[in-house]
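User: Show me a protein chain along with its predicted structure.
Assistant: Here is one chain, sequence first, then structure tokens.
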Amino acid sequence: MPDFLIAGPDDAAWTLLLAHGAGAGMETPFLARMADLLVERGVRVARFEFGYMAARRTSGKRRPAPKAETLIPEYRAAVAAVRGAGLRGRLAIGGKSMGGRVASMIADELQGSDEADGLVCLGYPFHPPGMPEKTRTAHLAELSCRALIVQGERDPFGNRTEVDEYKLADGI
């Protein structure tokens, strides 16, 4: 079971489960600030780390992130752990960059089984930096889960001009 950083009211109407990006863990200033801003608005936030990042934290050895698809079971386990901890209210899943990408891969499945009610991606890696032809968007065209993707205008993983050209589901 992953360790969590949980903030916000226990009786919140919504909890947002957030995973980190490929290169930095759950305690980054960006994720901490986003959690603080969401808590100020009454959202409960549960941040967690994938196993490779937790191992990096304890060993100090920096290895590349695994492929996003291989992290899906860990994300499912985090959802089960949050749900098993007596979560009240609705659950949205998501994360920063790669964490949001992994969440997006299981959002429809979790919505269909009433385990999650939405998706929030804080920067989505639409493509590797400098390789806009290698998109990671196929599943986003068919996504039925309600989703919010917050993307910076100059994000090297997909800027506004590029993202405007992608076929994305209407619920995004």
